[in-house]
Amino acid sequence: MTPTDEHAPASGTPVRRKEDARLLTGRGRFVSDLALPRMRHVAFVRSPVAHGRITGVDTAGALEVEGVSAVFTGEHPAIAPVALRAQSGLPGYVETDQPPLARGKVRFAGEAVAAVVADDRYLAEDGAEAVVVDYEPLTPTVCAWAEPEHPVHEEAPDNVLLSRTFRAGDVDAALDGAAVVVDRELTTNRHGGNPIECRAGVARYEAADRKLTFWSGTQVPWIVRTQLAELLDLPEGNIRVIAPDVGGGFGVKAVLYPEDVALCLMAMAMPGTPLKWVEDRVEHLLAATHARDHRYVLRAGFAADGELLAVKADVWCNTGAYSVYPWTAGIEPLMAGGLLTGPYKLTDYECTVRGVATNTSPSGPYRGVARPSTVFAMEALMDSGARALGLDPIALRRRNLILPADIPYKMPSRLVDDSGAYEACLDKAVATFDLDRWRAEQSRRRTEGGRPIGIGVGVYNELTGLGRAASAGPRMAFRTGHDACTVRINPDGAVTVFSGVTSQGQGLETTMAQVVADALGVDYGDVEVRYGDTDESLWGFGAFSSRQAVISGGAAHLAGEHVRGRALALAAALKEAPVEDLDLRGGEVYMAGQEKPIISLAEVARVAYLQSDRLPEGFEPGLEGTKFYDPIRGAFAAGAQIAALEFDPATGEIGILDWVCVEDAGRIVHPVIVDGQIAGSIAQGIGGAMYEHLVYDEDGNLSTGTLLDYLMPTAGEIPELRIGHVSTPGKNPTGVRGVGEGGTLAPNAVVAGALADALGVEVDDLPVTPARVWELVNP
Amino acid sequence: MKCPPFSYHRATSVDDAVAALAAAGGEGKILAGGQSLVPVLALRLARPDVIVDVDRVPGLDGLELRDGVLHAGALVRHLALAGQALHPLAAEAARWIGHTAIRSRGTLAGSLAHADPAAELPAVLRACDGAVHVAGPSGTRRIGADDLFVGALQSALEDTEMITGVELPVPDAWGFAEFARRHGDFAVVSVAAARFGDRLRVVVGGVAGVPHLVDAGDLATVDGEISEDRVAILAAAAADDVDPADDLHGSARYRRALTEQMTARALEQLTTTVREPA
């Protein structure tokens, strides 16, 4: 064996995941596992009314409940001065306050009105039941496209918190010149991330040194630290945020919640007493962020040959009762308007988006942010256009895709697409799927009988790894384009990485170790990764926008290269060899032309830390380096999904017969993790397309308050997914493109498209349930 | 989602359980497999003073066929019911209950006492015109299936009574069909069909407060083969006979259509499952 074979790169191979030893054997360390001396437990009193003035809160009964030590309300002096206020520099954006505990009025059913501290959660819930709150009801607004009677916030009498029009070219003229014009009015179903682990936090305040430690199942510990410092008026260095093992996030945990802030404020009011809040599923469905409650009124014009000439769109996004902190009410509408046209070329575009407040749980980031809805909208236009023109829907899509020759392509929203791999993804998906075979089976059933089959297609772009020029979030006070990574070679030659990533199960610990092992030239097994603790690592914005592999991965690579350079320089000086002839592989330093290593990294490290007498002149002790990385723009990731579904017109039953997805993940670091991300996100997309629906009644009560009524797909509902890849490396140090969200983007379009293809009925409202299929077939 | 305070009594016998229920003065609740009670407690929708745990009471898990009737103990698990061959309709229906973890804990009597109109076993009990044996402070009694279910989640059991055993007559032919949103969910609509001699009993779950026994009049009398036409007519009659409500998972119209489809499926199965004469 040559040394090269012996030390093959860790990247590109399915190395064993570092986190699995604990996660798969039940030894994960989650917030709910944390037990601290003197710790007490918190239960929130939540509003049963969607909209109303608080006319009285009586906590006396709760304080008499055994084991209850404190009750906080919005008027408590520790709570009252603080409000979460999501800020944006966008013109016309209406800023509003969100109190940690409701003050004056409640704006959605489930809003926290008071908090009870007790010896355990059972007693805290006993206490919560004994808190008496009086409400004077106000008329709630549930639907974002209905006239409000009583506005949610006085600052926005029409409930519109944000509105923006994207405009390019002359859309009306283009529509006038179109051979066909198609109109669609679509709504997408409110649903949410629903990670296995709901929200959780433990807050501990030490009054003597004014230090706050907040263990939180957050995806964004550094953002949480910055925001807490501002809200709690503490020096940022006095706050330590720790995200230990986290059981899923999907965006729901990329938010700083009023409950989080309340927990920290209460801990500060009870110094030395750690306070724990572990959210249960009922609370989660009621009060964690929802998403995707949108309406699209669309008009598109096509030329006779299928060229897309114009898209005009009016979009309403239900932002719920509060502008989600710190992302603002802009998170969904701006993504919807910016990405609606997806992978298709278009010059004439006009899209007005609105974020509208209602008396429902706030909307926030959820895997795919708005694009599962926009891809559904855009692909519905493509399918309608194809039907109107009598063209093949796939051919129509091909006619309009952004191609490699068009790159970089400036979308009508002015975002710059650097991918162009859409046709490659679509071609491979169609070939893998074997479209001809399924079309033949479709006609066979049409003539010989059997459940009708439909074929649905979705092509999409995933905006990943956004740098400072295209940063996630609407003109907020921070730009999320960069992360840091520190690579430290320990005195024994093993490596500890302090990464800015957070992980909610997606294997970042492994991915970062692979990147560093290869950049540095050590074995994967010799790299340990620390993350999620603001006192350990320098900086990371966290997990959202499919950004960490690109950005934190870039920082890890650069830090690894940097430290490799330092180690080789020291080795060269120690061995009196020219540094350009040296190579570091598998933790050994090799000289060009020699088979045996000349010195080990462990010995170099020993000199660097322990044997300063051997340190050559000009070398400082230690062997460590920190690098930031910002891709400036981002890495668009292309994807295409195609599936065959069968429908039983008699019962509406939907069967998924085959589902193919091809994505461009650029250069793949860990093939199994990448496929897992794609499969998991398709499963969540299928959940949104066919099962998951948070339904409010007219009074603003959530009708789907438990998992008995809020249906999530299980392994039994998700088909065997066939996943393929094309690879066009991204322009970043590791060549990756993000894959965290893409899978969620197509299933709405695929399922709706398949239904139309099978039965000739256009579905305008999601989800596509058996009942809806039956109603469409039996109007 | 933490249960309210209660006191706990682990019963050692039926008499002990009944005494504990009596002592609780109507504020006691029986815990067996816990698959219905525990979520209800966690949501604080029930607030019993005393939980009487009968899960370890000996002698309540028997399965015995006598004179064409399956006599099952109260604590027979869904998994055991699904795995036995003495009563194929009960076995088939039990396989539709939840998931393995639920089936290995949940009990026959627990499901019947909980009286969920969309659950599988109440529909089977009614289709088979079975009965439950009940012990209470004033002795034992037998409640027939048609009298047991009073309304949604309401049975004819007194607060101080417990089911000790279940009689399930074995039909000459049977069929079971269910439409659920996901594998293991409660039925949107389920149909249990059983033929005893020339009498056909068709019960629809999920369309009313109780498992609905279809009144098919003369159609319910059959002799020998049930033709395809007869299946269609019976299915249409069942759809006519139910009066479902709209809910999150479908309109009344849709549930009526499902009733027709599931009845047809159950009856088609019934025509293929004729029991050999003993």
UniProtKB/TrEMBL annotation, chain A:
Record's Gene3D superfamilies? Aldehyde oxidase/xanthine dehydrogenase, a/b hammerhead (3.90.1170.50), Aldehyde oxidase/xanthine dehydrogenase, molybdopterin binding domain (3.30.365.10)
Quote the SMART domains the UniProt record gives. Ald_Xan_dh_C
**Keywords tagged on the record:** Molybdenum, Oxidoreductase
What GO molecular function annotation could you give as one example from this UniProt entry?
iron ion binding
Q: Does the keyword Oxidoreductase apply?
A: yes
Where would I find the Aldehyde oxidase/xanthine dehydrogenase a/b hammerhead domain in this sequence? 25-139
Does Transport appear among the keywords? no
What is this protein's record name?
Carbon-monoxide dehydrogenase large subunit
Give the organism, scientific name.
Actinomycetospora succinea
Classification of source organism: Bacteria, Bacillati, Actinomycetota, Actinomycetes, Pseudonocardiales
TrEMBL record, chain B:
Annotated keywords: FAD, Flavoprotein, Oxidoreductase
Does this UniProt record's set of keywords contain Ligase? no
Q: What is this protein called?
A: Carbon-monoxide dehydrogenase medium subunit
InterPro entries to which the protein is assigned, alphabetical: CO_DH_flav_C, CO_DH_flav_C_dom_sf, Diverse_Substr_Oxidored, FAD-bd_PCMH, FAD-bd_PCMH-like_sf, FAD-bd_PCMH_sub1, FAD-bd_PCMH_sub2, Mopterin_DH_FAD-bd
Q: Which Gene3D superfamilies match?
A: 3.30.465.10, CO dehydrogenase flavoprotein, C-terminal domain, Uridine Diphospho-n-acetylenolpyruvylglucosamine Reductase, domain 2
Q: Name all FAD-binding PCMH-type domain ranges.
A: 1-173
Q: SUPFAM superfamilies recorded for this chain?
A: CO dehydrogenase flavoprotein C-terminal domain-like, FAD-binding/transporter-associated domain-like
Keyword match Oxidoreductase = yes
Q: Which Pfam families match?
A: CO_deh_flav_C, FAD_binding_5
Which GO terms of the molecular function aspect are on file?
FAD binding; oxidoreductase activity
Write down the PANTHER family for this protein, in alphabetical order.
XANTHINE DEHYDROGENASE SUBUNIT C-RELATED
